[in-house]
TrEMBL record:
InterPro entries found in the cross-reference section: FUR, Fur_C, WH-like_DNA-bd_sf, WH_DNA-bd_sf
Family: Belongs to the Fur family.
Organism: Rhodococcoides corynebacterioides
Protein name stated in the entry: Transcriptional repressor
Coiled coil: none
UniProt superkingdom: Bacteria
PANTHER family linked to this entry: TRANSCRIPTIONAL REGULATOR FURA, ZINC UPTAKE REGULATION PROTEIN
Compartments, as annotated in UniProt: Cytoplasm
């Protein structure tokens, strides 16, 4: 896989890919903290993330007002994302096949689109349920529990 993309196979690259494969939608800081015990510096992690994105093995997802997040890039998988405004979880979603997302009425003549990244913003079911529970006047404990950021795989993602 790495050789086919013109990238040398190294232990740090394999370790970075392993973290992203098991924890999609995490930021570079999470990857660096996870691999610190393996002797990888933050600079090494960032450099390898950049190299893996350039080789199109990872995809960098950049939601507004958030750190860039990383996921494996699988050929032919052109999915998009839902982001919860409350817990900041990112969920994968697909757009109905055949929907034309080509921009029209552009003020940039000759602009060639080479990719589309759609973000849908809203409130996930867990946060909506929690909000309903917190707003319930019959509830005895009005304090809401602290919530960590959670990746689409269900694992917590530190901020």
């Amino acid at each position: 896989m790495l050789h086919q993309r013109g990238l040398r196979v190294t232990v740090p690259r394999l370790l970075v890919l392993g973290v992203i494969a098991t924890h999609p939608h995490v930021d570079a800081g999470y990857v660096a903290r996870t691999l610190r015990h393996r002797g990888l510096s933050r600079q090494t992690v960032y450099g390898n993330l950049d190299a893996l994105v350039a080789a199109k093995l990872l995809r960098r997802v950049e939601p507004a007002d958030s750190a860039a997040l990383y996921e494996l890039r699988i050929e032919g998988d052109d999915h998009h994302h839902l982001m919860c405004r409350h817990c900041r979880r990112l969920f994968d979603t697909a757009i109905v096949p055949g929907v034309d997302l080509t921009p029209t009425g552009s003020q940039a003549p000759g602009f060639r689109v080479d990719g589309v990244d759609v973000f849908f913003w809203g409130v996930c079911g867990d946060c909506a349920a929690e909000r309903t529970r917190v707003d319930d006047p019959t509830r005895s404990d009005p304090a809401s529990p602290a919530r960590g950021l959670i990746g689409s795989d269900g694992g917590t993602r530190p901020s």
